[in-house]
Design goal:
Elements: E1 11-17, E2 20-23, E3 37-43, H1 59-65, E4 73-77, E5 80-88, E6 99-106, E7 110-115, H2 122-130, H3 137-168, H4 175-207, H5 216-282, H6 297-318
Parallel strand pairs: 3-7
Antiparallel strand pairs: 1-2, 1-3, 4-5, 5-6, 6-7
């Protein structure tokens, strides 16, 4: 076991006894022997160490709680559960994807949670605890999962809405700007799905655990949150596939635009090719050029070039090269 240590950085502890919620000294959580429910939370800000955690947390779980890199998971350890989830950050500046982890050690009457950066959903969980909705570990995790999924759901829906707007701008928007925007949306969808799908699996796994402190209502809430994460994962997958399809369409539009411009250049060059030959031939500085001294020779050459140009344009029109 880990030796007792000072409370973690920015630690907060609450205890529920007889329906009354009150703060408790974080140092006293390990020694608490009442019949109530205790929640100890620490925002580590990247400075937590295993030695900062209370001694009742097993070494393996303590290492997982303070790990620098983690992914959503759910593990049953003796009579407790270690569950890691990812949710929306309270401050979007933390991380390019805006998601932060919360690691939770769940027992019947005690929960110890650690987040390296503030999680947006924790404020709702604390409010629910003050409202008397949380009386054991099962209540805590089920309501935390619902709060996280509800915070993340609008963010996923916004990606789909922005992609719909990009689809509507295919014919009238700037192709190059649209490609950049669609690439950003696709990247965001990939990053979010990387954590949303494991969140679903972790919650589904906890709903299957055979602990008597996970009530029927808790299991329903866990499954509901897992279903919401599953729907978000499917929507993110759809966003990723639609973004890839739109990117291909924009690539085709760009290639078509280049082809049209190349055709216009080729037609123009083909029109002036015989005219260049005629003017080059008549522009030679040699004796014997017909009608060199005739006063209407210049206008005759201009008329001849106009006829040639019109003939070339007519030939292109007959071949339907100008229809594109």
């Amino acid at each position: 076991m880990i030796d007792p240590a000072p409370a973690p950085l920015a630690a907060m502890a609450l205890v529920v006894e007889n329906g009354v919620v009150a703060p408790i000294d974080p140092h006293a959580v390990a020694a608490y022997a009442g019949e109530g429910f205790v929640w100890l939370h620490a925002d580590g800000m990247g400075e937590l160490d295993v030695m900062d955690l209370p001694d009742y947390v097993p070494p393996m779980a303590a290492g997982a709680l303070v790990a620098h890199e983690t992914r959503p998971r759910c593990d049953e350890i003796d009579d407790a559960v270690l569950i890691n989830l990812r949710g929306t950050a309270k401050e979007a500046a933390h991380g390019s994807d805006g998601l932060v982890s919360i690691r939770v050690w769940v027992e019947r009457s005690r929960v110890t949670s650690v987040s390296r950066y503030p999680l947006a959903a924790l404020g709702k969980v604390e409010a629910l605890m003050h409202a008397g909705k949380i009386t054991d570990g099962g209540d805590f995790v089920s309501l935390l999962a619902q709060a996280i999924s509800k915070e993340l759901d609008p963010q996923v829906a916004e990606l789909g809405d922005e992609l719909d707007n990009c689809e509507g701008m295919l014919d009238s928007g700037d192709i190059y700007q649209l490609r950049r925007r669609i690439a950003v949306l696709r990247s965001q969808a990939i990053v979010l799905r990387r954590f949303v799908a494991p969140d679903r699996d972790a919650l589904a796994a906890m709903a299957q655990l055979e602990f008597d402190w996970i009530s029927k209502d808790d299991r329903l809430h866990l499954r509901e949150a897992a279903d919401r994460f599953a729907r978000m994962a499917e929507e993110l997958e759809a966003v990723r596939e639609r973004a890839a399809l739109l990117h291909e369409q924009l690539t085709d539009l760009r290639a078509e635009m280049i082809d049209q411009r190349s055709l216009a250049i080729a037609v123009t060059a083909f029109i002036f090719l015989p005219l260049t030959f005629v003017t080059g031939l008549l522009g030679m500085n040699v004796q014997g050029i017909p009608f060199a001294d005739h006063p209407m020779a210049f206008w005759g050459v201009v008329a001849f070039c106009a006829v040639i140009g019109a003939g070339v344009v007519g030939w292109f029109a007959w071949k339907q090269w100008l229809d594109d």
